[in-house]
Every structure is written in structure tokens, then in C-alpha cells.
Amino acid sequence: MFAFFYTLGLHLLVFLANIVALFHPKTRKWVEGQRAKSKKQGAKGKGQEAKGKGQRAKKDLAFRGMMPVRESKVFWVHAASLGEFEQGRPVIEAIRAEYPHARIVLSFFSPSGYEIRKDYDQVDEVCYLPVDTPRNVKRFLDSVQPDVALFIKYEFWYNYLHELKKRQIPTFLFSAIFRPNQLFFKPYGGFYRRMLFCFNEILVQNEASKHLLNSVGYASATVAGDTRLDRVVQIAKQAKSYPEIEAFKGTDPLLVIGSAWPDDMEVLIPFLNQWEAPLKVIIAPHEINTEQIQQWQKALKKPSERFTVYGLRFGVDGTPLDILHSPLDILFLDTIGMLASLFRYADFAYVGGAFKDGLHNTMEPAVYGMPIFFGQPYYQKFQEALDLLQLGGATTIATTQEFTTAFTEVYQNLEIRQQKAGSCYDYVQKNAGATAKVMASIRSAF
User: Fold this and answer.
1) Where are the catalytic residues (predicted)?
2) What's the CA gap between 227 and 87, in Å, rounded?
3) Other CB atoms within 10 Å distance of the CB of residue 251
């Protein structure tokens, strides 16, 4: 009964999304992506059915010793959005390295993931995940024919999970984290609990999550950690150099504000306007919106510029052009893909999102070792944020005054700054290695 109403609700969601798409660009991209995937699957349907029969015949012949077995594994990896993709990227690339002939299909639910990573070269296909209706699920799985299904952090789709279990396809959830207030652990959460038992194994970030799963009878939980730590270690090793940023920073301390939302800037702009000691600042908005950046520039009393404009001061080789310019204190990052590498130049980091939508990736600055700040209260579901607060490497603030007090302390006291930086760096190094544990679980499926 619950499954019927769940599927009915999804049909209603699609209907409403088609209406919202008329006015909302992001929703429109999602709707268009769903339509494109549906047409593609429809076109492949008959051919895939014939191909499936042929493959079954080959397997039968191979079983009887009449022909050699030489087949590639098929991995289906699903990420809700861009953040989950970056979290799962070390696993995808480990699969590609260990199974070079495998076919890897990467699906996204959100346009923010698909649009940015649709050309990702470590997989064979990138697509939107079709809406979780029984018909869509069967068509998708018939088309992909996965040998293993991998879900990153969360995304619990009832029909997909039950069909995967029905087909006896090994299914894993990794870098997962659970909290007591989730529906899985409520007396009335039986519908949601059934989805947990569709996973062959759930690899969680911490012991608390494992304990919660055990409390509802799920015994196949393993504490493996968070693959995001492996990703930031990987990024740090491959971090790009930016002569423009080196020139901008000079010899001054640098504060990098990553994934800034308007709520974050309401707290930070008054601080920046009253701060008098030497300090360079790079601000990376959560969403690149030129109009929003211009509004922030007007609110700031110090000279600022967008990176795409500032970059015109340099030649193609990164060397400064021989022209005069006014001093610059604040730089707005209006490009995609630079932020993770830019933290290498930072002395302090502020990570946005915790005032409203949810804290963004604190591990990106932590891997380089520096004091980290973020807002509140929406950081509680991020284990690494809680750990960094407990270790003293991070500080959470609610007001401009709180940030000013906390920042002044680490700016003026080098010993405290180094202690906080060391706590962040050591945390990442000690807790990396989740990818190897996920790969061990994948091997056990074959």
C-alpha cells in the first residue's frame, strides 16, 4: 500500500515539475534531461532485449565449455548531485584502475551534477536517473544491466532498490551517515527501513551510524569512513598553481571564503568593512551570479574585482602585464573548478552554507592545514565538521561579532593558529583510506 502511494506521489512530482519548469531554469534542465533519457531508453529497448538474449546464450555456451568467457563488468554508480559525485569520485577512479575494461554508468538526480560532469572521462555514460517508477526502473536496469550498483552517501529510491534486490544485483551504499531523527529509526518508519535491507552492505562514516542500523536489525554495516577525505588528499597532490593568485596574495595573509551564500555574506561583509590589518580575501560564491556579485561589491568598502576581469592583467603564461592598476583587497571567484586548489594559498578558511542550506565541504581547506570557520546551525549532520569542532581546528559562529572575535584570535596569535591548522591537517591524514575499504567490498561481490 505504501509503495503504491509512493509511486503515485512521484507521478504527481513529475507533473508539478513540468509546471515549475516553465519558470525555473534548474527545474527545466531536470525535466528536459528526464525526457531525453526516456526517449533514449525507448529507442534502445528492443535492441537491448535482443542483445540480452544473445548474451544469455553466450553465457550458456561458456558455462558448457564451448567458448571462453571474456566479459566486462558493468558498474552503475549513482550520485544525487555534484557534491556526492566528488565524494564518490575516488571510488569511480579506483574501479577504472582495477577494472580497466569495465563499463561504468554514472547517474545524477540533480542538474547541478549532470551539467558539470556530463563529459567526465572516467566513465562510459553519464545520465539523469529516471524517476523511480516501476516502469522506468525496469527499463533503466534492462538497458544498463549492472553487475554492481553503488549509491553515494544517500538517495533511497524504493523501486530501484527493490528491483535490484529482486534481480540479485549486489548493491552498496558508501560514505553513508545516519542520525536518530531519520524516518528509518521511527516506530512508523517500516516502509523506509525495508529499503535498508535491499543493500548487500552499507559502509558508514562512523560508529554511531553503524549502531543505529544495528538497532533496527540491519547487520551488514561496516565503518569505512568518508571517501571525501581520499578525494581532498588526491586534489591536494594534484593542486594547480595560479600565478594570478600568488600575485594577488603577495606577502599578506589570505582568507578564502568558499561556497558563500547571501546569509554568509550578511555576516562577513560588515567584518570585511571594519577589518584594518593586512588581509587579502578570495570569495567563491555558491552559485556564480554576476548581479549578486556586483551587489556584494557595492556593499564592500574595499576595492574588489571578479577573477575573470582580474585575470586580464596577466599573459597566457601567467606573467603580469606591464600596466598600472589600483590596489586590490578582495577577489570574487567567478569561475568553476578552481576553489579546491586555491585553498593551498590560504591561511584561513570560511566554509559557507551552514546558515541555511547545509555546510559545504570543510575537508577541502582542512587537507592543507588552516583554521576553519563556518556558520550555524546547519552543520550537525556533517561528521567531519563535528570532529573538527571537537578537535579545536574549526570554529562555528553566528554573528559578525563572533566571527570578528574568533578571527582576531587566530590572526594575532601564531601559536593558536598553528594548533588549529595542525588539528585540521592531522584529521584528514588519519582518516583517509575509505576508498580501499569500499573496493574490498566490491571485490567480495564477484
Assistant:
1) 84 (proton acceptor)
2) 6
3) 6
Pairing of strands 103-108, 304-306: unpaired
Nearest to 136 by CA among 3, 281, 7: 7
Q: Given its phi and psi angles, is residue 438 left (phi above 0), alpha (psi -120 to 50 degrees) or beta? A: alpha
Choose, from 49, 84, 201, 266, the residue flagged as catalytic: 84
Q: pLDDT per residue over 334-358, tens digit each? A: 998 889 999 999 999 999 999 988 9
For domain 16-42+71-234+434-444, give the CATH number.
Answer: 3.40.50.11720
User: Which are the contacts of 380, defined by CB distance < 8 A and separation ≥ 6?
Assistant: 179, 386
* 199-to-89, 188, 326, 334 alpha-carbon distances in Å: 20, 21, 59, 40
Tell me phi and psi for residue 179, to 5 degrees: -130, 150
The H or E element spanning position 292 is helix 290-299
User: Does the pLDDT of residue 166 top 70, yes or no?
Assistant: yes
Identify whether 377 is preceded by a cis peptide bond (ω within 30 of 0).
Answer: yes
16-42+71-234+434-444 and 240-431 in the same fold: yes
239 grid coordinates = 593542486
Average pLDDT over residues 122-141: 94
Active site residue 84: yes
Q: What is the mean pLDDT of the chain?
A: 88
